């Protein structure tokens, strides 16, 4: 479809210099009420994005309006995000496919994570190019089709998504179902696949990629939503470098490697506890099916801890101390598992609550912290993908630490405890470093001459990178 001619933004701005833009709709009105795409894989409409950014710079709004916009976004986005969950692989499936030994099981888990390592960074680049809704539509569609056909493709198709916490409950019920055509584990994958394919279509239609593409918001509400992002991520960058330049900026940044260590440390635990939890409970003396049911309670507690930590971290604008707290909780759990498994079944099961809650609450804390530490947006996308994809190489090897079922997996618990301590220590170092960088930036900004400050103010509308003295790191 041919493109229509549009006036350059500078000309539009000149033509409207006599008007005010307090309602945040001036520039969007020139381009129409909604963002436009030409075809499925087209880049986001940069002209409309720029219009929303310009409107966001001058829009005026009160706290009541902000709460209304936030509530509309939450109501539209959170239900879709919460439905990303899926069930875990269970022991009944392992036996039907001949995975009856611990060595075969750990090998299967290692193969599972190969897709993460290979595709996490390309997936982030693709998501930025086509938008989150189209990316997740593709990802979930392949995931759903893979669930219908074979299990080993799940590592590839789940790039960018997370498994749910209700897998144990579903598995506990579904593996009991048997017919002349389907076994229990086949029902499990059927139940996985159908909702996933439906969810893929819903995400394509209803999930916005950015505030400017949120069609359920009015032009004024889109400007307010973008203004909130500008404020929360201040100084905000909405431009950036190309992919290769972003990659070079990431690998040359010490913060990238520190975040990599933080993520890799707790990823040892998350990569193993997700799939060994039923096995660990079974080794306490429960049957395979009952072990699936007993996984529910630790996950429910972990779910509450994830939200509690995220809520308090956001309220206090702190990441470092919260990450250290979650690391310490998981560390205590692993120490109990490594020392008391053979002595007390109750203590070992109780320790699993610490491990699940501590490990799973780390993911949103670490990723939100890392996202704040990288700017511009292009570097942020590459940086978070770099951390996740390289850390998931650890996930390939992580299942191999649980090689000693005869010894109650004590060595695996000990190694996981050491990894969590590394996360704790590196988070402390990273928080100290970012605090010093903020102090250095404040001093550098205060030392600027009036002329230099005036030049910075002239660039107020331009992108601000994380090496700019105006940039403030979250600690």
Automatic annotation (TrEMBL):
Record keywords, A-Z: Membrane, Transmembrane, Transmembrane helix, Transport
Example of a GO cellular component annotation carried by this entry: membrane
TM segment ranges: 105-123, 135-153, 185-207, 257-277, 289-308, 320-341, 347-370, 382-402, 414-432
Molecular function GO labels: transmembrane transporter activity
Positions of the UniProt region annotated as Disordered: 1-28
Membrane topology listed for this record: Multi-pass membrane protein
Pfam (any one): MFS_1
Record carries keyword Lipid biosynthesis: no
Main location per the UniProt record: membrane
PANTHER family assigned: PERMEASE-RELATED (PTHR43791), TRANSPORTER, PUTATIVE (AFU_ORTHOLOGUE AFUA_6G08340)-RELATED (PTHR43791:SF36)
Protein's name in the database: MFS general substrate transporter
Species per Swiss-Prot/TrEMBL record: Agrocybe chaxingu
